[in-house]
Specification:
alpha/beta, 290 residues
Length: 290
């Protein structure tokens, strides 16, 4: 389909604003700080497209990981990790099971509490090792990157961008606790925008609207476990008190792997760009019966 062929170019429009304004511009240098798992599998296609357009990408990853392997369209920089491959494989497998578990929300919530805490601890330790690797940070600082491409679900990339004073572009599917709306000062009316995982539609009854407004309270607990420690880490590194909202609000562009066909419409800000279809790298034409 002709429209489908344009998806990769449109998807990276926000990012490329920082790197080029036309075919005659020189390629830029992109520092990529990905999230593990399927997050990276989506981001990898964006990195591939940047390379095809003449940009240099350096991917920073823990030495022990599941999917982030060296490829010919980016340079891989690794750092030591305080865990083994078996340990991270076990914890991420346990975490994925809680996501797909079919049970009452409260039962799933309490059952996944320990798993989430353990997984978060892994990522926090990995981030701390990265940010205090003096040799690697010195190398990254001297490399004069134009932009940091990162998934804010793993806040380490956002903290690193702030520390190196490099513009940040966020590449994400969704963000817990509505931190994206808070960080961009975007309206986010709970009475009208269905919250993720609530199963509410855009035509909610009164009780569903009440549920939609109460649901974020449970998510606050999730964020307290998985994200809050990064604020403390950033404050120590930057030598000033900062919150996650402070860190995330510095993002130049938010690239959402979604659109208003898959997701319900909601208010957005000018630097929020929807790139639904970026995952469809290997597309096949629809049959005549569709």
């Amino acid at each position: 389909m002709a429209v489908g062929l344009q998806v990769p170019l449109l998807a990276l429009a926000g990012l490329l604003l920082f790197l080029s304004v036309g075919p005659q511009a020189e390629g830029g240098k992109v520092l990529v700080v990905p999230m593990e798992g399927s997050h990276w599998l989506s981001m990898r296609e964006a990195v591939r497209e940047l390379h095809a357009r003449g940009h240099q990408a350096v991917v920073v990853s823990p030495e022990v990981n599941l999917h982030i392997k060296e490829e010919d369209f980016f340079t891989l920089k690794t750092y030591d990790t305080p865990y083994t491959h078996d340990e991270i494989n076990h914890i991420l497998l346990a975490l994925s099971r809680t996501v797909f578990e079919k049970a009452h929300f409260l039962k799933t919530f309490w059952r996944s509490r320990t798993t989430l805490k353990n997984a978060s601890l892994f990522f926090q330790k990995s981030c701390e090792v990265l940010l205090y690797d003096k040799d690697l940070i010195r190398h990254l600082n001297a490399s004069s990157f134009d932009v940091v491409l990162t998934d804010p679900v793993y806040p380490c990339g956002a903290v690193l961008a702030e520390y190196l004073k490099i513009p940040a572009v966020f590449f994400l599917r969704a963000f817990p606790c509505d931190l994206d709306s808070e960080s961009t000062q975007c309206p986010d009316p709970s009475s009208y925008v269905p919250r993720i995982l609530t199963s509410n539609s855009d035509h909610m009854t009164f009780l569903q609207r009440v549920k939609n407004m109460l649901y974020p309270l449970a998510m606050e607990y999730v964020c307290h476990i998985s994200l809050t420690p990064y604020a403390s880490l950033a404050s120590k590194l930057l030598q000033r008190d900062v919150s996650l909202v402070d860190i995330f609000s510095s993002a130049s562009v938010w690239l959402y792997r979604g659109d208003f066909v898959l997701d319900y419409p909601r208010p957005i800000m000018p630097n929020m760009v929807f790139i639904g279809g970026i995952n469809c790298a290997n597309r096949k034409p629809l049959s005549q019966g569709c």
